Amino acid sequence: xxxxxxxxxxxxxxxxxxxxxxxxxxxxxxxxxxxxxxxxxxxxxxxxxxxxxxxxxxxxxxxxxxxxxxxxxxxxxxxxxxxxxxxxxxxxxxxxxxxxxxxxxxxxxxxxxxxxxxxxxxxxxxxxxxxxxxxxxxxxxxxxxxxxxxxxxxxxxxxxxxxxxxxxxxxxxxxxxxxxxxxxxxxxxxxxxxxxxxxxxxxxxxxxxxxxxxxxxxxxxxxxxxxxxxxxxxxxxxxxxxxxxxxxxxxxxxxxxxxxxxxxxxxxxxxxxxxxxxxxxxxxxxxxxxxxxxxxxxxxxxxxxxxxxxxxxxxxxxxxxxxxxxxxxxxxxxxxxxxxxxxxxxxxxxxxxxxxxxxxxxxxxxxxxxxxxxxxxxxxxxxxxxxxxxxxxxxxxxxxxxxxxxxxxxxxxxxxxxxxxxxxxxxxxxxxxxxxxxxxxxxxxxxxxxxxxxxxxxxxxxx
Length: 463
Hints:
Blueprint: H1 2-27, E1 42-44, H2 53-56, E2 66-70, E3 78-86, H3 95-104, H4 108-111, E4 114-120, H5 125-138, H6 140-144, E5 148-152, H7 172-192, E6 196-201, E7 206-208, H8 212-225, E8 233-234, E9 243-246, H9 250-259, H10 266-276, E10 283-284, E11 290-292, E12 321-325, E13 346-348, E14 356-365, E15 367-374, E16 385-395, E17 401-411, E18 416-419, E19 430-437, E20 445-454
Parallel strand pairs: 3-4, 3-6, 4-5, 8-10
Antiparallel strand pairs: 1-2, 2-5, 6-9, 7-11, 8-9, 12-14, 13-20, 14-19, 15-18, 15-20, 16-17, 16-19
Helix pairs in contact: 7-9
């Protein structure tokens, strides 16, 4: 009798053990031998600004749950918030180089005036963990100082990404990809709305121009001085790169992208949004401040060779100047076009020895760098010339302005000239820059670009 009881007890114990094991399997607690990386997150709260009527009450609620993977934004609004979304790519990864470019191309003062928000938008937890660890390792200081925040939005926060409308006869996979991208940007913009006075949208595969924030600040001040309506300023002509908004418009933009997420690509939607806010024409600044660096697209790893031809990595903010030349000008390719940003250029007929192109600055300034590029596709190069800076403005016999004395700073080589850190040797203020031909040539000449960087104002900006 007792022996039989022991057998029954043993059977019951084994049965309970099997059921307990099966319960683990059913709950999904035991899976493959691949370990699941642990993702350390905490719930993130948005910094809400009351600049938009949408945020002043419970209008058009957009309830999104955010997970903060790294960093924490300052509780004080900064001048500029920069948003970019990143997903796992089949080929290549450009996120870390993009972030390095943003911070390395900015001065300490500029970095303290901005916050970069990165949305890791892929649902692959292994990729997110690996990427977050890389960011924490490479940008520990920026994370500590509130200049960088890394987020994720869980998959259950997204509406359906399958069975969507196939506008423009796009393949279902393409529709799903671009629709999710719209939602990624919507969530990113929604979170960033209160972090800065202005918001800059970038992609995760770009390089930045030197001191891009100071240039953006200057362009905004110029635009605001015009007292005209604007909704979006463009600092690159490519995709959703370098598009700047007022933070007061971000709550509307986030909801706009969310509502129409399956209709069309994000860069098409942004132009519709701009039109709705009564800015009819694009406002594009040149040279561009951001360049597309990616070789392979985030959609399917396809080859992507897009480049912004107006990008200049070392940004030269040319001083205001009048430009004169005694070289014969072809049609409307005037000397001033060599100094202006954009695609214009000076085109002159066969220059003779001693002929010149002179830029006379409105105000004396300390020149820090000069870049001169001549020719086009190997033709119409200026073969022999020297670059000079001058001081003491005078008026010549023919009524032109020039300088009393000039000093050579170098010569063109293969039609180009570049010199940086000039203020270390030439610490005095200059009033002129002159390109003087030192040997005549039969070929015509194109002076494509004259770029001058000057010492920035010592008046500090408020952040």
